[in-house]
Amino acid sequence: VMHSIRSYGGVEAMRNWISPAIIAVVVSALVTVAGWFVTYRYSLRLERERRREKIRDFQIALRAEIRSELQHLNEENLDLELKTIENAYKASKTYSVYVPGLARHAVFDNLVKEIHILPENVIDPLILYSRQRQMLDQFSSEMRSDKFAKLAQSRQLNMYRDYVGVTKYLRTLAVDAVAAIDTALADRRTQ
Q1: 0.85 cut: is pTM over it?
Q2: What CA dihedral angle connects 120, 124, 127 and 133, to 10 degrees?
């Protein structure tokens, strides 16, 4: 067998044939691996960009919802309303204050499951604001109940004073949450 390979120039021919074939296979494999690497890097970069965009969109939506509520809170003159309610209680032995419920927090309710993707410096003020808002909502719900209407007027008035205090604090926390989101969005623009 060796004699027949040698007689056709086989060893030389085999060497000439194997070398380019092996080189072609190695080059092809390297190009394939490089392609995988480039595709992987591109996919990672694209995924990071999508995540950043999602975070930005969440923050913009949450900021809009909080600013909307903040605008409403700023329009209310809580001290004047408290004086008016106090005077109403003095004027009538049957008066009972009525407080409206809070508007549904649609954006926050829909995004709360993904709040973990937001920057840490946004999550804390956002949660503080949300918890205060939940407390105010629960408080206003209790003040609309039949049980509240049956309380003595002095107790009702004290509860309304507490309600005003909780509302003022909600306003402060809303300002803090908007400021934290604004800072995070500005930091994102400079990156």
Answers
A1: no
A2: -140
